[in-house]
Amino acid sequence: MGIHRFFTSLNDLERIIRAPGRFKFEEHNVAAHSWKVSQYAMFFATIEEREGRPVDWKSLYERTINHDFAEVFIGDIKTPVKYASPELKEILAKVEEGMMEKFILKEIPEEFQEVFFDRMKEGKDESLEGRLLEFADKLDQFYEAFAELKRGNTDKEFLKMYRIALSKILDLPLTASVDYFRDVILDDIMIEDTAIDIRKITKRVLEAH
Known about the structure:
- By secondary structure, the protein is mainly α.
- The radius of gyration is 18 Å and the shape is globular.
């Protein structure tokens, strides 16, 4: 099939809905998520770069736009399930890795396979680019939860998602990005008119940090 199979599989990402099985005012698919993550990462990489940290922009973009491609094989597994235990998380990661490897070997032309193996590998690691991917991924989860709470979605899963994503963002070792998010973006968020008291929820998480 050649690269054609890869291109057509991108359409499948548009049909994979995030946070499946929950009532949502706004549906989000994996393809849109990947694009948003790349935008968040681009902005915060600029913040880090201005603080003197060199950014490998090629690596950053490749990591962000490809980080969830493997979901074309297994779908978007609910976060509570995925993180139910370290063992389960590791098993799922191995399944994704194995299916991705088979896909590349079967569908990607041989002359491009080495490139694809590098681009499709796990992008979250201790490098600056890996940390920025993690930051941006959690930020999109944060904003998805925020959008639901703002409109009055009382599903406790989104309240939990908001708290966890916010906490994980604040804990990441990206001082410049975290400071900007906490001191500038969260201030804007807390003055928004929301159906659920976002200001109170946010302050509680901040007090714990």
